[in-house]
Design brief:
alpha/beta, Amidase signature (AS) enzymes, eleven-stranded mixed beta sheet, two-stranded antiparallel ribbon, 22 helices, 13 strands
Length: 564
């Protein structure tokens, strides 16, 4: 036994010597961003006219140190050798590599950590997508290798990134806000579910601060804590979408296998479609919201953001569950095993799908409709009904005014439990340049909103009825199974009606910006959405990775192709 251990240790030392160094070193050097800000000052989109890019709060070198402490024996050579096995690979492929002995969960985790450090330390390619790293990620992966169960959930051993408004033990949960920068909590219910199914929480992702409910008109993807999230398909050129911006940029750039986002109205759909990802906004109540910094208990929901429909189904299945602390979950029917129902459909024969007539001029939408027709679906073109959805912002303000203090009192760290909205507004004003460079108009609106409980309930009912009518009039008239939108363009009526949405990549626009086809169905029809999305995805193959975030993968794949 002693001789075996000696040989094993000698082998590990040899690996370390071959790597050139035991701990890879990455350093972030802050730089003068005035030229970049000046260039963006004339951007056609007002949302892209940034005031700040680099965070003034986050110590990126400390984040890099948390990574490098976990990379013993891992080198650039190892990264490149593993790249074809991990880059752009889905969960099923990664698990097969593990079973065949070509990978371990430890190597997978280290590869993603290295990928994060490699690009987030690069001034030309950083995305500000990550705000915290789990200091025990590799140790947890090593334990997963040691204790592999016989029939694990597909998520077992897979690194997962989590939006930074979801409570995650071991890392702060800030919602991007300076005031919560040290808010250390227990796990939210969905994080406990992910861990129970074997998932490894790799880190936390940047977001639009307070889930995009802080200021009016500023950029998506900005938070005081994390700085400005950038889109890997065009840094400072394309919008990152919001509010799950960091989750979108991170998964697009292969910083993890999958990520969790949250949505009130468009916050999963928007960044997913902007990053050539699959994003599922579930029906409210399918997934628990307890332990998640809220906007509105009426409309909020977490959901998966992934590179494939199958991975979205796997992550969704790992998060579902009845939570006594979130009464909405009691309304959810017993879910199927989502990834197992995907292949029940081979085509879309018999499906009737509604297409919005105003979108027919969009070339990618037209191409997607042709793909769906080729799969057997009947496409019905319709003109949407006129509906009144005014007042949604005031409803959100009224909900957050109640729901945010409730979250703080029940789930935040002790120093934050008595905070009020007025306290947060005053705190931000004390150093507005650092804490609220784009203002806090929405928080100020919260202080002013004065709807009675009866008025609020009546307004919610009116908005719900109008949103349901928006979808149901054409769905009933034409007997539609789902309607087809683009990106997050119908996120508001879907949120108000509690209709789930699934966005799937359609490809890139002519300028290189991603675009997604969004399927919208009735409440708790996630399985049907995933089935339709999977069949479309397999035929369209619209996912395009950002070329600047592992071009070696394409070069290596090209070199391995046989000569024609």
């Amino acid at each position: 036994m002693r001789s075996f251990i000696t040989v094993l240790l000698a082998g590990l030392l040899l690996i370390g010597c071959r790597s050139g160094q035991e701990y890879p070193r990455f350093t972030w050097i802050p730089y003068d961003q005035s030229q970049e800000l000046a260039e963006n000052a004339e951007h056609p989109s007002r949302r892209m006219r940034f005031k700040l890019i680099q965070s003034r709060v986050l110590d990126k070198n400390e984040l890099l140190r948390v990574i490098t402490r976990q990379l013993e024996g891992f080198s650039e050579d190892t990264y490149r050798e593993l790249l074809p096995l991990i880059y752009e690979q889905d969960i099923r492929t990664l698990q097969r590599h593990v079973r065949e002995g070509r990978l371990s969960y430890e190597l997978i985790t280290k590869w993603y950590l290295y990928q994060i450090a490699r690009y987030e330390s690069d001034r030309e390619r950083y995305l500000n997508a990550i705000v915290a790293i789990n200091p025990n990620a590799v140790a947890e992966a090593r334990e997963k290798d040691r204790r592999r169960p016989e029939n694990p959930h597909p998520l077992y051993g897979m690194p997962v990134l989590v939006k930074d408004n979801i409570n995650t033990a071991g890392m702060p949960t800030t919602a991007g806000a300076h005031v919560l920068r040290d808010n250390r909590t227990d796990d939210a219910f969905i994080i406990r579910q992910i861990r129970a199914h074997g998932g490894i929480i790799l880190g936390k992702t940047n977001l639009s601060e307070w889930a995009n409910f802080l200021f009016f008109g500023g950029p998506n993807g900005f938070s005081a804590v994390g700085g400005q999230t950038l889109n890997p398909y065009g840094r400072r050129k394309f919008d990152s979408g919001g509010s799950s911006s960091g989750s979108g940029a991170a998964i697009a750039a292969n910083y993890a296998v999958v990520a969790v986002g949250t949505e009130t109205s468009g916050s999963i759909l928007s960044p997913s479609s902007q990053h050539s990802l699959v994003g599922l906004k579930p029906t409210v109540g399918l997934l628990s919201r307890s332990g998640i910094v809220p906007i509105s208990s009426t409309y909020d929901t977490p959901g998966p953001m992934t590179r494939t429909v199958r991975d979205a189904a796997i992550l969704l299945s790992a998060m579902v569950g009845r939570d006594p602390e979130d009464p909405a979950t009691a309304r959810a029917p017993e879910p199927p095993v989502y990834w197992k129902v995907l292949t029940e459909l081979q085509d879309l024969k018999g499906f009737r799908l509604g297409a919005f007539r105003p979108f027919l001029e969009n070339a990618r939408y037209q191409e997607a409709l042709e793909v769906l027709r080729s799969l057997g679906a009947e496409i019905v073109v319709f003109d949407p009904p006129e509906v009144d959805l005014e007042g949604f912002g005031e409803v959100l303000a009224a909900d957050m005014k109640e729901d945010l203090p409730r979250y703080l009192s029940r789930y935040a760290a002790p120093p934050y439990r008595s905070l009020t909205v007025a306290d947060i507004v005053a705190y931000n004003r004390a150093d507005s340049a650092l804490r609220i460079p784009y203002g806090q108009g929405r928080f100020a609106q919260m202080l002013k909103v004065s709807l009675t409980s009866e008025e609020l309930a009546a307004r919610k009912q009116h908005l719900h009825d109008e949103a349901v009518r928006f979808f149901e009039e054409p769905m009933q008239q034409y007997r539609l199974d789902a309607v087809l939108s683009i990106n997050n363009w119908h996120a508001r009526p879907a949120a108000l009606a509690h209709y789930p949405c699934l966005t799937v990549p359609m490809g890139l626009k002519e300028n290189g910006e991603p675009i997604g086809l969004t399927f919208i169905a009735r409440p708790f029809e996630e399985a049907r959405l995933l089935q339709m999305g999977y069949v479309f995805e397999q035929a369209r193959k619209g996912r395009v990775p950002p070329p600047a975030y592992a071009p070696e993968a394409e070069a290596r794949a090209e070199s391995r192709r046989p000569a024609s």
